[in-house]
């Protein structure tokens, strides 16, 4: 394990590393391949829970069911399928989501209102409920508190993702080790204000429910809401956190002396998952990071960073390893935020290409070599205030078009 500020990254940690959690996955036949497509997370006890959801007006049926379950502020299980979004499926889709919740509660031995439901995949198709129900029935013996259970769950939630996304840290609270784990999926239809992503976080911390909800919103604003792959926001996005309380610490609130270390660790897990989603964007070859400093406020910096990272022209230039800073400055200027057009600096990594809004002579070969790397950092300094923000995305490639041109076929 390597020390990172006030928390420690847990090597090979996962969503089952916190005390009280198990997970697993199976193939029930929703996908054309034999990859897992149904998974569950189970907590030994009702866990304090919180969630944030997509801002898309068209919200999939599972979101309604999960919102209802979370009214009590607790959850004990999450049931998730991939391969079918169960979105825009009318009353039947809603009934199917409720049936998933009931079946999961029955077979996992928990209260129905303590089960969250999530789905991801193709929009507008009804679930094959005979397969889903058979899969749920087969899940309980597959759940494990070992990393194999987390591995199966992580695989079960993937769609066009190429790799699983996991992160885990530990932090001392009242002198006791508290662990925070996370797993996510997301590769396409990714845009700020949530995206086609599902993310699940577990912790064994004892924490106040309102404090957990507040922390989740704050962390989401600077992590998951700062990524984009293609400018599309999905119907199914959901981030759920569950806290078992089994670490034995005093209940965490913002007034707790160890709140800041816990919040920093929680945000780190969110950021790691968000960056992994951006890096695994459909067809992507590079992770792109845009850091904006010197804005009039953090909110303004976020808007500018998201505009640059979401520019198709910027993303295409990065794919082509073209140091075309004109596309970057154009994106900054159309973000709708206060910017002095005479004071902007731009760097590609450590290579300065613009100073005080004027071109700087730079080595094209050096820039080409930098842009051919697998991580590209664009730095924009506006020299207009103390606001700052960072956004993450990826390059726009031929493969993105290929993948999405044949998504259903």
UniProtKB/TrEMBL annotation:
SUPFAM superfamilies: DmpA/ArgJ-like (SSF56266). Pathway: Amino-acid biosynthesis; L-arginine biosynthesis; N(2)-acetyl-L-ornithine from L-glutamate: step 1/4; Amino-acid biosynthesis; L-arginine biosynthesis; L-ornithine and N-acetyl-L-glutamate from L-glutamate and N(2)-acetyl-L-ornithine (cyclic): step 1/1. Its EC number is 2.3.1.35, 2.3.1.1. Substrate binds at residues 159, 185, 196, 282, 404, 409. One of its GO terms (cellular component) is cytoplasm. It holds the Pfam family ArgJ. It is an enzyme of class 2 (transferase). The active site is at 196 (nucleophile). It comes from the Bacteria. It is found in: Cytoplasm. One of its GO terms (molecular function) is L-glutamate N-acetyltransferase activity, acting on acetyl-L-ornithine as donor. Keywords: Acyltransferase, Amino-acid biosynthesis, Arginine biosynthesis, Autocatalytic cleavage, Cytoplasm, Multifunctional enzyme, Transferase. The record marks 120-121 as: Involved in the stabilization of negative charge on the oxyanion by the formation of the oxyanion hole. One of its GO terms (biological process) is L-arginine biosynthetic process. The record marks 195-196 as: Cleavage. Catalyzes two activities which are involved in the cyclic version of arginine biosynthesis: the synthesis of N-acetylglutamate from glutamate and acetyl-CoA as the acetyl donor, and of ornithine by transacetylation between N(2)-acetylornithine and glutamate. Belongs to the ArgJ family. HAMAP family: ArgJ. Heterotetramer of two alpha and two beta chains. This is Arginine biosynthesis bifunctional protein ArgJ. It comes from Paenibacillus rhizosphaerae.
């Amino acid at each position: 394990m390597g020390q990172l500020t006030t928390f420690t990254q847990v090597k090979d940690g996962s969503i089952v590393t916190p005390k009280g959690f198990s997970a697993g996955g199976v193939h029930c036949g929703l996908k054309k391949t034999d990859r897992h497509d149904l998974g569950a997370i189970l907590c030994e006890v009702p866990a304090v829970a919180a969630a944030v959801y997509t801002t898309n007006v068209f919200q999939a049926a599972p979101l309604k069911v999960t919102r209802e379950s979370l009214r009590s502020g607790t959850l004990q299980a999450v049931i998730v399928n991939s391969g079918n979004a169960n979105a825009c499926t009318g009353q039947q889709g809603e009934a199917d989501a409720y049936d998933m919740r009931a079946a999961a509660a029955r077979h996992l031995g928990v209260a129905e209102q303590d089960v969250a439901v999530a789905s991801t995949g193709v929009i507008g198709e009804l679930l094959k409920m005979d397969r889903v129900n058979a899969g749920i029935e087969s899940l309980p013996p597959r759940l494990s508190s070992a990393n194999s259970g987390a591995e199966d769950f992580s695989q079960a939630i993937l769609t066009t993702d190429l790799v699983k996304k996991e992160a885990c840290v530990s932090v001392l609270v009242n002198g006791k080790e508290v662990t925070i784990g996370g797993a996510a999926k997301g590769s396409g239809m990714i845009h700020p204000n949530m995206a086609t992503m599902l993310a699940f976080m577990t912790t064994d911390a004892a924490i106040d429910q309102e404090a957990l909800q507040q922390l989740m919103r704050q962390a989401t604003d600077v992590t998951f809401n700062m990524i984009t792959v293609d400018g599309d926001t999905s119907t199914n996005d959901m981030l759920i956190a569950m806290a078992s309380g089994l670490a034995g610490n005093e209940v965490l609130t913002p007034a707790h002396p160890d709140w800041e270390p816990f919040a920093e660790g929680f945000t780190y897990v969110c950021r790691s998952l968000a960056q992994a989603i951006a890096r695994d964007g459909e067809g992507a070859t590079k992770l792109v990071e845009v850091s904006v400093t010197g804005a009039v406020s953090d909110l303004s910096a976020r808007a500018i960073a998201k505009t640059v990272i979401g520019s198709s022209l910027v993303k295409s230039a990065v794919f082509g390893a073209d140091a075309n800073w004109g596309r970057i400055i154009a994106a900054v200027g159309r973000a709708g935020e206060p910017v002095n057009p005479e004071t902007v600096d731009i760097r590609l990594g450590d290579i300065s290409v613009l100073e005080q809004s004027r071109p700087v002579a730079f080595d094209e070969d050096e820039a080409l070599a930098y842009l051919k790397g697998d991580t590209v950092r664009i730095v924009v300094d506006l020299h207009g205030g103390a606001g700052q923000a960072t956004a993450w995305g990826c390059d726009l490639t031929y493969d993105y078009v290929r993948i999405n041109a044949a998504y259903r076929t």
